[in-house]
Each structure stands twice: as structure tokens, then as C-alpha cells.
Write a structure and sequence with these properties.
Strand content: 15-25%
Distance between the termini: 60 Å
Helix content: 25-40%
Largest sheet: 5 strands, antiparallel
Order of helices and strands: HHEEEEEEEEHHHEEEEHHEEH
CATH class: Alpha Beta
CATH topology: Glutamine Phosphoribosylpyrophosphate, subunit 1, domain 1
Length: about 280
């Protein structure tokens, strides 16, 4: 929707009419054709690039959200350096798995939704509220999901009320579940969860939590061809983000490179990764 101001110098009435604090509701009222869920569905199954594995883990001071960099289309590697983890706002982030194009569009709309609410209400949504808004957006994509164009994100953030990091996972219908400790989604999630299940502890430091998620992504790439491991030759490393009471922070290229290289170097000695104690 465009604001045409050449004739009068004024914004259209849609921008001046009081309404909901939801940007999605605003679009539904004035330009419903712009919402992803209102588009005409394609016929048959559509081949499109898919993002794969996203992982998250909490630690006493916050939460870590990370993703590999590979996108696949069938048995082909569609992109080696796709970005799958984005800030939702200052204190939360979302990692995308599923149809890459739709997922990135959904993230941008989600960012606008949170920003619009804050501008209209003069306050931010609670972390629970943000998770619920994302659930509604996923549910609106159900028709596309039934055509093979699913979007299944992982949402994480710092809960200012409870003063801790929290993780929320979703299914294609918009069903929301809070995960405790760690979580994973995407094609390599079963291997990543298995890795974190044996290595996770409640008392991890931030450094240990970031190492944990990179170890999990490495294990996922080891067994799932759709998940990309650290690419030392091309200098492509996982995206790792940390959210604490100080806000969202993405590890720099140098930090993620050092972390991925240290994990890779240790794998030369232990190809299957660190071992958990039997008892």
C-alpha cells in the first residue's frame, strides 16, 4: 500500500483512522491482498529453497539462538550462505526453517507487527504476547503449508518480567509450545536435539551455551545432508545470536569464526564430538 501525497500533501485516510494496534489487522482492513495468507495458492507441489536447522539453548543470563547457513531445493544445495536468524525486536529473535522466501517475508512482517504495536500503544508486548502474535501469523499460512510451503520458526527472547531467557517452538498449524533448556527445528533437528540432550546443563555460561549450539549444528550436519556445517574454505560459519537483559547481540564474524574453528579442531581428535558422562 502506497501513500500518494502529490495532490493534497496529506496521507490517505487509512493512515489517519484510529484502529487496532496490530499492523496485520491494519493491512487486513485496508490492503488485505498484501497479507501472505490471502494470496492465491499455487497448484500442485512447488519446489522452492528451504532453510534447515535452527537451535536454541538457555543459560542463567539469557538465551542463545543459532542456525546453519545452507538452503536446499530437493537434493540440491540452493544457497550456502543464507541467513536464518533475525532480531524480532530489541529483546527477541526468530530463526526460520521451511520455505526460505516465505519465512523471510514472515519475519519482516513480524518485525513490523512488533514495531507498530510499540508505536501505537507506547509499550512493548510481553514475550508471551510476541510468541502469540507469531503463532497467529503461522496459522494464516496454513493453506501454503498444505501445498508444501511450510514455515516453522523458533522464537527466543529475554522475558523482562520473569528475568530469564525463554524459547518457543511451533508447528505448521501455529501450535505453540514453550521449550525448556534447549530446542531445535528443521530437517536436522532430531540430531541437534540428541546432541544437546546429552550436553546441556542448567548452569551453562554464555560461552558454553554458544559452544553447545555450534556443537549441535555440527552433529546435525554430520547426519543430515540438508544442514550445512562450518565451511572453512569459503569462510561460512553458523549465525549465533545471544539475547540477555542487555538486548539482542549477534556474534561478529570473527567471534563465530573462532568458535566454529575451535569446534572443528576438536573434532579432528574426537570426530563424534564430546562425550557425556554415563552417570
Amino acid at each position: 500500500m502506497e501513500a500518494i501525497t502529490r495532490s493534497t500533501g496529506r496521507l490517505p485516510a487509512a493512515f489517519l483512522t484510529p484502529g487496532s494496534s496490530s499492523f496485520i489487522d491494519f493491512l487486513a482492513d485496508h490492503s488485505p491482498e498484501l497479507l501472505p495468507g490471502n494470496r492465491k495458492l499455487p497448484e500442485g507441489i512447488v519446489e522452492a529453497p528451504h532453510g534447515t536447522t535452527i537451535v536454541a539453548a538457555t543459560f542463567p543470563g539469557g538465551v542463545v539462538l543459532a542456525g546453519d547457513r545452507r538452503a536446499t531445493m530437493g537434493n540440491m544445495i540452493a544457497q550456502r550462505d543464507i541467513e536464518k536468524v533475525f532480531p524480532a525486536d530489541e529483546y527477541s529473535a526468530v530463526g526460520i526453517a521451511g520455505t526460505a522466501g516465505l519465512a523471510v517475508e514472515m519475519v519482516k512482517l513480524f518485525q513490523l507487527e512488533l514495531e507498530h504495536f510499540e508505536k501505537v500503544e507506547g509499550a512493548t508486548l510481553s514475550l508471551e504476547g510476541k510468541a502469540n502474535r507469531l503463532s497467529t501469523m503461522i496459522r494464516s499460512n496454513l493453506g501454503m503449508a498444505m501445498q508444501g510451503l511450510a514455515v516453522v520458526p523458533l522464537f527466543a527472547g529475554w522475558d523482562e518480567g520473569k528475568e530469564k531467557g525463554r524459547i518457543f517452538s511451533y508447528d505448521v498449524t501455529g501450535g505453540r509450545s514453550e521449550e525448556h533448556g534447549y530446542a531445535a527445528t528443521g530437517s536436522g533437528s532430531i540430531f541437534a536435539r540428541g546432541s544437546m540432550k546429552k550436553l546441556y546443563r542448567d548452569d551453562l555460561t554464555e560461552q558454553q551455551a554458544t559452544t553447545l549450539v555450534v556443537q549441535a549444528l555440527y552433529d546435525a550436519a554430520d547426519d543430515d545432508s540438508a544442514t550445512g556445517g562450518p565451511d572453512l574454505a569459503r569462510r561460512i560459519f553458523p549465525i549465533v545470536t545471544v539475547i540477555t537483559d542487555e538486548g539482542f547481540r549477534r556474534l561478529t564474524e570473527a567471534e563465530s569464526s573462532e568458535l566454529a574453528r575451535s569446534v572443528t579442531d576438536r573434532r579432528l581428535e574426537q570426530p563424534d564430538g564430546p562425550r557425556a558422562a554415563l552417570l
